[in-house]
Amino acid sequence: MTLKNVMTGIAQGLLSIAMLGSGLMKIMTPYEEIAAQMAWAQNVSSSIVFLIGLLEIFGVIGMNLPYLLKKYKKLVPIAAGGLALTMLGAVLTHAIIGENIIAALVLLVIASFVTYSRLNLLKTIKN
After folding, report:
1. 90, 70, 79: which is closest to 12 by C-alpha?
2. Separation of CA 9 from chain center
3. Which of 60, 57, 32, 58 is closest to 46 using CA atoms?
4. pLDDT 10s digit of each residue in the chain, 127 long?
5. d(C-alpha 102, C-alpha 39), whole Å
């Protein structure tokens, strides 16, 4: 196991924990509470907040389930790329409304790193 694989595994684990927690919070917390705590949520409907939460959860599942099943590993960089796009949207949204973008930017960088590091899984013959 190379240092790059270890670093990617750690980054993928940290990204999974952060995105799973965020996604679960978005789908389980009442919209009114989310809107009271997060300014961006006041600008979108409760359905959009719920959809973002689902995207985050499905991204985590897509990044980790292939390793548990020992197949469909091509899904890993695709799911990580989807999370990177989700976080790009978060960075832009926070920047537009004047909120702090640091946390979203860090998650964007981590998701991009995992996507880039796992691209070799797309080149494999077997799933």
Report:
1. 79
2. 15
3. 32
4. 799 999 999 999 999 999 999 999 999 999 999 999 999 999 999 999 999 999 999 999 999 999 899 889 999 999 999 999 999 999 999 999 999 999 999 999 999 999 999 999 888 655 5
5. 15
Owner of token pair 């973002």: 52
Give CA 79 to chain center in angstroms.
Answer: 8
Whether the CB-CB separation of 34 and 41 falls below 8 Å is answered with yes
Burial 35-48 (b: 16+ CB within 10 A, else e): beeeebbeeeeeee
Residue 106 contacts residue 100 (beta carbons within 8 Å): no
Contact, 42 vs 83, CB < 8 A?
no
Query: What pTM did the predictor assign?
Result: 0.91
User: Which residue carries 């980054």 as its tokens?
Assistant: 11
Question: Which tokens belong to 102?
Answer: 């640091």
Rounded to an integer, what distance in angstroms lies between the CA atom of residue 22 and that of residue 7?
Answer: 22
